[in-house]
Task: structure prediction
Amino acid sequence: MNQFRPVPLAAVLLVSALTPVAANAEPVQSLLVEPYGSARERLLNSGVCFGCDLRSARLQGAHLIGADLRDADLRNADLREANLEGADLSGARLDGADLQGAQLSNADLSGTDLRRADLRGAVVINAYAPDVRTDGMRFAGADLTGSHLIYGGGPD
Result:
């Protein structure tokens, strides 16, 4: 008569955990995460819109203090009376944008395209502005103290 000795359950679990199991798993696919909302909504909600397409966007009176708009396309955007103090607009395209009465003090405007932009009545005190394109820029009544944006400006 054969006698069976009881095997402790812990030993069975340990051995079964070490036994290789063949898996029929499918390959992992990349997940593309798209930002939620339009570029304008993302900018207004988070203050960050790096490289966004905001052409002809209506941002009149928007509070964009310290916003990240690096390399954003703001051609022909309506930014009248917008507060962009301390915003990073480096490399942004603002040609033809309406910035009348906007606040741009201490903003980073390096490499920004301001051709044909309207800055009449804007406050642009101490903005960092090397390599800015200003052909046809209008700036009558603007406070450009310490910003070096007067080169290439235009008439009323």
